């Protein structure tokens, strides 16, 4: 494997000194880029793009050609694991992901098998190894998965949901069934992420997109408990260095202390959290990633720079901050504005690292 030329992202996650604050964007390979839209059209549809290692590699690298980003993230989807469990994933125009066979009964959950990552999810591993090779040490590669709770919401609901009626009914009326599902998912995610590391991922991120929909007690029981199980089972060293792990619960600002106790290396913050407050609460234990509102990218460059400065000042001096958006970049964001954002982070952050 080629030697890493820019490791400031990995160093920041481990709170080691850096020259400037590293930056990448959630969903940086996405619909806001015309070159991404062209490649997706070439692939035919979203999952065909995910399953083609060369095209998945191409879209992963596209934002790195435009911007001075400090990390690449595997181009894939969080629903690859449930798809590999045989649920029949498809995408409905305007509706998002759907499953032909929802897992909404205990009998359906009992029948689920844990996917073999090198076989059932081999296309993801081919993408990881292809991207790592083509990066040639330019920046680190982030592997990722959805959290068990988030994956379970799609599996039980049969797709996207606003009220989470079916899974919350299961949670309160049949908790043993939901725990069985979450346990299988945690085991599957551990295998999946460890296989990503074996194929070249240098950092890992767990996206808990829907943890914020839970009550205080239910979050700990049905979401955090299973992310803890994953953190405990992960490969944490590869290529002679630590593989940092970041947990991100959207709407999870209430639980930063509990999340930091899992043994992860970093926490992702959404834009509802004040980063100065987050650093006071948990910054001695973990690095922090975030947390600009993606909608700021609709503003003019000087307003974007102002927001970047506010967040940098909020975090303050020293390492342990990876700059990012508080969620994925919007599909209607101006690519030029994204470039101004990345440039502003590097230019404005140097003074915090003297």
Brief account:
The chain is of the alpha/beta class and 354 residues long.
Radius of gyration: 19 Å
The profile of the biggest β sheet is:
7 strands, parallel
Choose one word for the global shape.
Answer: globular
> Which architecture would the CATH scheme give at its second level?
Alpha-Beta Barrel
Instruction: Please give the oligomerization state of what you see.
Output: single chain
End-to-end span in angstroms?
32 Å
What is the helix fraction of residues, given as a range?
40-55%
Tally of separate domains: 1
Structural class based on helices, strands and sheet pairing: alpha/beta
Per CATH, what is the topology? TIM Barrel
The helix/strand order is: HHHHEHEEHHEHHHEHEEEHEHEHEH
- Poorly predicted ranges: none
**CATH top-level class:** Alpha Beta
Strand-residue proportion: 5-15%
Number of helices: 15
The tally of strands reads: 11
Q: Name the average pLDDT.
A: 97
List keywords for this structure.
15 helices, 11 strands, 7-stranded parallel β-sheet, two-stranded antiparallel ribbon, globular, TIM Barrel, 354 residues, alpha/beta
């Amino acid at each position: 494997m080629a030697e890493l030329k820019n490791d400031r992202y990995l160093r920041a996650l481990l709170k080691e000194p850096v020259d400037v604050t590293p930056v990448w964007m959630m969903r940086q390979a996405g619909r806001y880029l015309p070159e991404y839209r062209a490649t997706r059209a070439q692939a035919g549809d979203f999952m065909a793009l995910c399953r083609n290692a060369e095209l998945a590699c191409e879209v992963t690298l596209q934002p790195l050609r435009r911007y001075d980003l400090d990390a690449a993230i595997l181009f894939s989807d969080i629903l690859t694991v449930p798809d590999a469990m045989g649920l029949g994933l498809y995408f409905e125009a305007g509706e998002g992901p759907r499953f032909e066979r929802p897992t909404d009964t205990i009998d359906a959950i009992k029948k689920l098998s844990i996917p073999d990552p090198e076989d059932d999810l081999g296309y993801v591993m081919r993408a990881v190894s292809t991207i790592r090779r083509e990066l040639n040490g330019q920046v680190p590669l982030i592997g990722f998965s959805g959290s068990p709770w988030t994956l379970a919401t799609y599996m039980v609901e049969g797709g996207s949901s606003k009220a989470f009626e079916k899974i919350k009914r299961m949670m309160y009326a049949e908790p043993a069934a939901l725990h069985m599902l979450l346990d299988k998912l945690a085991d599957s995610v551990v295998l999946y992420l460890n296989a990503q590391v074996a194929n070249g991922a240098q950092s890992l991120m767990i996206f808990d997109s829907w943890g914020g929909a839970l009550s205080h007690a239910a979050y700990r029981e049905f979401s955090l408990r299973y992310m803890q199980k994953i953190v405990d089972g992960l490969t944490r060293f590869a290529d002679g260095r630590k593989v940092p792990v970041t947990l991100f619960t959207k709407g999870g600002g209430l639980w930063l202390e509990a999340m930091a106790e899992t043994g992860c290396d970093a926490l992702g913050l959404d834009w509802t959290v004040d980063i100065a407050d987050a650093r006071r609460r948990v910054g001695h234990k973990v690095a922090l990633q975030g947390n600009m509102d993606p909608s700021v990218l609709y503003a003019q460059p000087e307003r974007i720079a102002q927001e970047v400065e506010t967040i940098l000042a909020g975090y303050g001096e020293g390492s342990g901050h990876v700059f990012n958006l508080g969620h994925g970049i919007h599909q209607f964001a101006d690519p030029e504005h994204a470039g101004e954002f990345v440039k502003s982070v590097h230019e404005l952050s140097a003074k915090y690292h003297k």
